[in-house]
Design goal:
It is a single chain. The protein is α+β, with helices and mostly antiparallel strands and about 400 residues long. About 20% of the residues lie in helices and about 35% in strands. A four-stranded antiparallel beta sheet has the order 5-2-1-8, with no helix packed on it.
Amino acid sequence: MGRVPDPRSTSAPVVTTAEPSLIPDLITRIPWPRWALCIVVLAAGVLLVSCLLCGVYCCCRRCQRRRRKQPKDKEAVGLGSAPNSTTTHLVQPDVDCLEPCSGGPQQWGRLLLSLEYDFGSQEIRVGLRQAENLKAEGTADPYACVSVSTQAGRRHETKVHRGTLCPMFEETCHFSVPPAELPRATLKVQLLDFKRFSEHEPLGELQLSLGTVDPQHVLENWYQLGPPGITEPEQMGELCFSLRYVPSSGRLTVVVLEARGLNPGISEPFVKVQLMLNQRKWKKKKTSSKKNTTMPYFNEAFTFLVPFSQLQSVDLVLAVWAHGLQLRAEPVGKVLLGSRASGQPLQHWADMLAHARRPIAQWHHLQSPREVDRALALKPRLPLPRPRS
């Protein structure tokens, strides 16, 4: 008969509980507190997740680079195999290619222009809309100068647009051109970069024969600008002066600095400073005359009391006078400033108002005295009442 096993000698419970208690036994053998073990496990988990995220990010970056390279390669192959009849303005340049192609038709930019001829007044109306993609180093302060070949000395200057290569002009000017002279007249538009104390840099030029324009319709087209031509030297010269206005006291200070490029045939030049109020002569002063020079240096200041309420009704005229061949003083050229001015003089006037109490100096091209007088359209002085006898 079999022998009854002794319950004390059985080791079954010890064998069955050894495997589940392996990890707790390892934990109990490490001489660290439980909170330290929890921190170690958490740090290891964070490190593992970070490694996984870095791997996923690197894979995504590689895929994006491959996708960016594929269209460029396809474009290069497509453009190389394109036929010669493809027009250049239909091809979008790459963003990385910032330099314009040499010899391309659009390297000087283009100009949106409208033309209209009025048979009643016998005037050609030139509408300057906007310009695009002007060629300059960095940014520029462009403005446009418009003239017609049949009207010597007559030109229109637009407002200066700061810090842009795509200026929006939206200005209209008029030129008197009889119908008989229209076929041989040429419209000239110059784009220049405004420089306050140096020569203005040309940006581009458009010369359009008005004989090819249909005077029966209003035409508005884009025109490609060509390279700037050789500008003719100014026969009337230039004048540099500064403006300063103090609104609280109503003091308008004009400092006549210097002139340059005057006709060598003149002598003893001086400058007259005139104020017009409501198109009538109001106040005037003049500098001393300088002998034996075509680049006179004046540096003379004049102060006028102009209340702020009358500032919009005031015109400021600086005129260079000199003795000519007839030994009498004649006006050489004038500059008109004020709310009725245009181009650079209007910009100078606006800068003076925008920077009150600060002198603003600038060079100005002298304009024809007749053109300035025509723009002023001065009214006759009111007759003084005669004393009764």
